[in-house]
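pasting for ref
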Amino acid sequence: MKVPSFYTNIMLSENTVKTLIENGLEERSDLFLIDLKIGADNKISVVIDGDNGVTVEDCMFMSRAIEHHLDREEDDFSLDVASAGATSLLVNKRQYKKNIGRILDVKAKPDVMLEGVLTDVSDDEVTLEWKTKEPKPVGKGKILVNKQAKIKYDDILEAKVIIKF
């Protein structure tokens, strides 16, 4: 017995969508993927970021790179392409590089919480710098001291940009 097509709930292949995204990113090497989710109802949610930020045109480009290669007659889907928000967590090394000079709030292993200016990014770690008041070595009172911490990517549990006005 043949089952009518409206009874089958065929989900889009994540590999298919990922390949379409990768093909689009080959054309636009300044953009990179942050997140991809495909819901049971074929709702595709894509979050991108870029070395120089993301514009509406960048989101439209990525949307077309995906949508134009899928058949709505074959796969009923919805597509949402968005940029990583200004206060989104940093999940890609390239996001750190583009945020050099900005203030980050970082939670790292073991029980480390820092807020400082991101001053350097390497393949293995990031460098944060901040100022703090510490007791004078001699006498009473406090002095302003420059501090620095190097944090390995593997130790970062959560990092986000702090926007101050």
